[in-house]
Automatic annotation (TrEMBL):
It comes from the Bacteria. Residues 6-127 form the VOC domain. PANTHER family: PTHR39434, VOC DOMAIN-CONTAINING PROTEIN. PROSITE patterns: VOC. It comes from Streptomyces xinghaiensis. Transmembrane segments: none annotated. This is Glyoxalase. InterPro entries: Glyas_Bleomycin-R_OHBP_Dase, Glyas_Fos-R_dOase_dom, VOC_core. Pfam families: Glyoxalase.
C-alpha cells in the first residue's frame, strides 16, 4: 500500500504551458520536476501534478467546483494559513474566497478555491478535527 515515499499523480489540461509554469511554480511555489514541449510536471505539495498542453481544450465560461477539482487537505492549520498568506502576497487568482463550512459539526473545515490559467479549480482546506480529512 501507499506510504509517505509514494506520490499521488494527477494530470490536468493546460492551454498555455508558460502560464501554467508561472502559476504553479512562481505563484504557488511548486518546484518544476520536468518540462517537455507537451507537458510540465510539478512537485505539487509532495505529489505529482502534470499539466498537459491542451490548446484545444474547451474554455469553460462559468466553471463550477463540482464535480471536477483537486487540491490539498492540510493536516496542520499553520500550513493552510501559510498558503493563504502566499495567495494574498502573490495575488494568486481566487475562484472562491476563504470560508468555513459545516460550522459546529465534526466536518467543520476552512476552504479556499483557486483557479489556474486554464480554468482548473484547486481547493485547499483544513479540517478542525483531523479525523475528518478522509
Amino acid at each position: 500500500m501507499r506510504n509517505s515515499r509514494d506520490a499521488f499523480h494527477i494530470a490536468v489540461p493546460a492551454r498555455d504551458l508558460d502560464a501554467a509554469a508561472l502559476f504553479y511554480n512562481k505563484m504557488l511555489g511548486c518546484p518544476v520536476a520536468r518540462r517537455y514541449a507537451d507537458r510540465v510536471t510539478f512537485d505539487f505539495f509532495g505529489d505529482q501534478l502534470v499539466c498537459h498542453y491542451s490548446p484545444d481544450d474547451p474554455v469553460v465560461e462559468s466553471p463550477t467546483l463540482y464535480p471536477r477539482h483537486f487540491g490539498v487537505t492540510f493536516r496542520e492549520r499553520e500550513d493552510f494559513d501559510a498558503l493563504l498568506r502566499l495567495v494574498n502576497l502573490r495575488k494568486v487568482p481566487v475562484f472562491q474566497e476563504v470560508r468555513s463550512r459545516f460550522g459546529g459539526t465534526a466536518e467543520e473545515h476552512s476552504t479556499v478555491v483557486l483557479v489556474d490559467p486554464t480554468g482548473n479549480l484547486l481547493e485547499f482546506k483544513h479540517y478542525t478535527d483531523p479525523r475528518m480529512m478522509y
